[in-house]
Specification:
There is one protein chain. The protein has 76 residues and is an all-alpha fold. The chain is built from three helices and no strands. It is elongated. It starts with a helix and ends with a helix.
């Protein structure tokens, strides 16, 4: 029993593509593309001097601690 010619071509293409993917992955590991420094650099890219790391500058969450006190004063 022999494989059809098209099946042999598909197997060869799959092996070549797998070898290319493996070599690209090994290259990325050796050039430290997956290092913690590289991954953190992308995560911290959105911060600049106007908004330093760890200091939120937006006003999405307002202080609602005085809201309940005003209602209590009105009721009592």
């Amino acid at each position: 029993m022999s494989l059809p010619f098209a099946a042999i071509i598909v197997i060869i293409i799959a092996l070549v593509a797998g070898a290319l993917a493996l070599s690209a992955f090994i290259w990325a590991i050796r050039t430290k593309q997956f290092s913690i420094e590289q991954l953190n650099r992308g995560a911290l890219l959105i911060f600049d001097d106007d908004e330093p790391v760890g200091t939120p500058q937006d006003m999405v969450f307002k202080d609602n601690s005085t809201h309940g006190k005003k209602e209590d004063e009105k009721a009592g």
